[in-house]
């Protein structure tokens, strides 16, 4: 294995969960697949783990992967769920991480809102641009956290700026860009019509910017 692939293997071997009492539980990983074009951080940085069907999910949720057209979701609010550090605008590396899942509302924005700050690190064909909805944003420990829109998974957190400032963008990995790798059903014309109608209704109701 290459060095970066070994890092993925170690992440897979340490997959687990933390119960409400803060006790760790490890999960058996039956198989894991690294994206065939993965060459390092920030590009095709995706892997799929297979766990037993019998894994208990009484305190977890299984979420469907969305096939929404990402452009129809711009300027809408998404939810990010994770155990990392939350920031109110400064580099708060001394703040404690939480053993309880935290939910943060973020705006999903057009790429132009992230590219000037990130340059070539932001991949138009893979990434999504997030900025905080309120005075709280994601900081260290949220990498890999699910990004949810309308109850479905549209991406996972990839990286952010070390400052953790409220103005700094957070970058997510667009799962819709990896439909073939994930075995998703392609986005259809009917899906497009549905999303256009939903976006129009959201604007009429004043949802988003």
Automatic annotation (TrEMBL):
Entry's Gene Ontology BP terms: proteolysis
GO MF term (any one): serine-type endopeptidase activity
Entry-linked InterPro entries: Peptidase_S1, Peptidase_S1_PA, Peptidase_S1_PA_chymotrypsin, Trypsin_dom
Keywords linked to the UniProt accession: Disulfide bond, Hydrolase, Protease, Serine protease
Ranges of residues in domain Peptidase S1: 21-170
Family classification: Belongs to the peptidase S1 family. CLIP subfamily.
Annotated PANTHER family: FI18310P1-RELATED, POLYSERASE-RELATED
UniProt name for this protein: Salivary chymotrypsin-like enzyme
């Amino acid at each position: 294995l290459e060095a970066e692939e070994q890092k993925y293997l170690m992440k897979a071997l340490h997959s687990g969960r933390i119960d409400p009492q803060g006790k760790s539980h490890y999960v058996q990983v039956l198989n894991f697949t690294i994206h065939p074009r993965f060459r390092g951080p920030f590009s095709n940085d995706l892997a799929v783990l297979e766990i037993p069907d019998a894994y208990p999910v009484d305190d977890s949720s299984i979420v469907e992967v969305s096939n929404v057209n990402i452009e129809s979701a711009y300027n809408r609010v998404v939810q990010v769920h994770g155990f990392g550090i939350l920031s109110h605008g400064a580099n708060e590396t001394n703040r404690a991480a939480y053993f309880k899942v935290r939910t943060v509302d973020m705006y999903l924005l057009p790429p132009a809102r992230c590219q000037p700050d990130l340059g070539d690190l932001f991949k138009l064909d893979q990434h999504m641009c997030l900025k905080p909805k309120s005075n709280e944003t994601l900081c260290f420990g949220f990498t890999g956290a699910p990004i949810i829109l309308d109850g479905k998974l549209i991406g996972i957190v990839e990286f952010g700026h070390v400052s953790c400032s409220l103005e700094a963008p957070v970058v997510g990995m667009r799962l819709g860009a990896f439909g073939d790798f994930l075995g998703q059903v392609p986005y259809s014309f009917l899906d497009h019509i549905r999303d256009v109608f939903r976006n129009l209704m959201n604007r009429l109701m004043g949802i988003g910017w």
